[in-house]
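Exam revision sheet. Question 4 asks you to relate a sequence to its structure. Input first:
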Amino acid sequence: MTTPNFVILYVDNPENSGAFYARLLGREPVESSPTFVMFVLDKGFKLGLWSRHTVEPAAAATGGGGELVIAVDDAAAVDATHADWAGRGLEILQTPTDLDFGRTFVALDPDNHRLRVYWPNGQ
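Answer key, structure tokens:
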């Protein structure tokens, strides 16, 4: 079976979004141009930020239609990450809460892509 290892988000300004994600992720991109920025994360997972103005074929949608999900080690890490991101000025769409799958919160990036941090129940 094929395993996805790369997500691309369509953004208004890749350089600005790249700077946002560099601060958020604590690492620099491995590739950066005016139309595309790429990060290589743990275990080889890649995050690309592509200009919604230059992507071909043209994108039909931008931020808010999906989520970039980040798992953390425990419920306290959900709360600590929330406090850190709120302190950095990220817009918080959902404060830390317990849902059927675990503890979670949702923030937005500059292009309104949803960033969900969670810790699954029972893990």
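Marking note for examiners. The mean pLDDT is 93.
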